[in-house]
Amino acid sequence: MPSVRTYPTKGLIALAASALVLTTVLALWRTNRQPSLSPLAHPIAPQPLPAATPVRVDTVDRLRAACSALRQQADPTAARRSLAGLRKDLSAMPPSAAVAEIRKFLNAKTDASTRLGFKLASNGILDEAPTLRTFLLDELARIDPASAAAYSKTILAGMDSPDEWAVALRNLALGDGSADGRALLEEKATAMLQYAPWQQNPSIGYLEAFDVAVYLGGTDLLPTLTALVQSDDNPAIAHAAFLALDRLVINDPAEVLAALVADADLMDGRESTRADYFARADVRDPRQRQLLESYLLDPAIGTAELNTFAGIYPNANFMLSPNLLTQNITTDHDALASRDAQSLVTAQQWLADPRFAPVAPQLQIVIQRLEGFAAQARGQ
């Protein structure tokens, strides 16, 4: 029986991909009110009171107090209140002053666990932060993106925390659009993805940082990602690499698929995964059709891989999640129906072409599936 696609929400596989962040508040400092004065009971003119001298509470002291409080708190709810209170205090300050106070605190290398996770909001900002330092790095980006990008270079000069690196890479990407900034971003993203100590027991922040590769695009990080997708002993890393590669194919199929055609060794041992990627090719684009034909006609492609391809082509499955830097791309009903229709016509043409005789069984599977989709789209 042919498989069924559901329109218009077909092809969507929701994946709540790792991620976590803070949203709450501890009122650490309160504003003192000057008591009101009762009017005098006798007709003597009141003497003016001396002007009150404003007392400035150093935010660094406030940050240190919050750090100390977090170390003593076992309740994540209390941590959320504390962090929300700090955010309110920082928001009330002039941005330059808030940036200066945060930098002073970060330079002191003091930190405390929040007992919260590393959780992303839909805009890439943290909903929860696992430490006070990651919270403050996130706040820097909210207050002053350029200053946050500049301070990222301090974080990226050492390798102390994968979660801090994840936020620092995001801050660098968003706050420094220069050629030098992009070059540094790629250099540090490559270093992070290849850093073995962080791969052993990857934090959520480390896994989220794979989105930087998607943001950078192109094929420079393909060797790194394809090596990681083959990590049999580390399924979390392999899955993160798979998702990053998949989204690279979705964003720029012609360039990435061309690289996979040019170097078959890149996916050695992950042939079924390669089939998933080539099944994303859209034959309405002449370049993608040419690449797909080269793939199907390659005698080195085994039967198992071709069967995987036939079972999913055209691949319209999408993983949905909040990401550090990029937005998810999906296909609407009309575009998907148009792609299915052209894929069916093309598969029928290939089946009639003697060059494709070795893959005729797989093409027949593809045609049967797509005819079922076409009938469903017509309401039959």
Task: Give a quick set of tags describing it.
380 residues, mainly alpha, two-stranded antiparallel sheet, 18 helices, Leucine-rich Repeat Variant, two-stranded parallel ribbon
Give a brief rundown of this model.
By secondary structure, the protein is an all-alpha fold. The protein contains 18 helices and 4 strands.
Provide a descriptive summary of the structure in words.
This protein is mainly alpha-helical and 380 residues long. The chain has a domain at 12-26 and 61-280 and 315-331: Leucine-rich Repeat Variant (Alpha Horseshoe). 56% of the residues lie in helices and 3% in strands. It contains 18 helices and four strands. The chain has a two-stranded parallel ribbon. It has a two-stranded antiparallel sheet with strand order 2-3. α3 runs antiparallel to α4, α13 runs parallel beside α15 and α16 (303-312) packs parallel to α18. It is elongated and about 75 Å long.
Percent range of helical residues: 55-70%
Number of helices: 18
Strand content: under 5%
Radius of gyration: 28 Å
Query: What is the name of the CATH class of one domain?
Result: Mainly Alpha
Number of DSSP E strands: 4
For the biggest sheet, the summary is:
2 strands, parallel
| Widest sheet: strand ordering | 1-4
Structural category: mainly alpha
Q: What is the oligomeric state here?
A: single chain
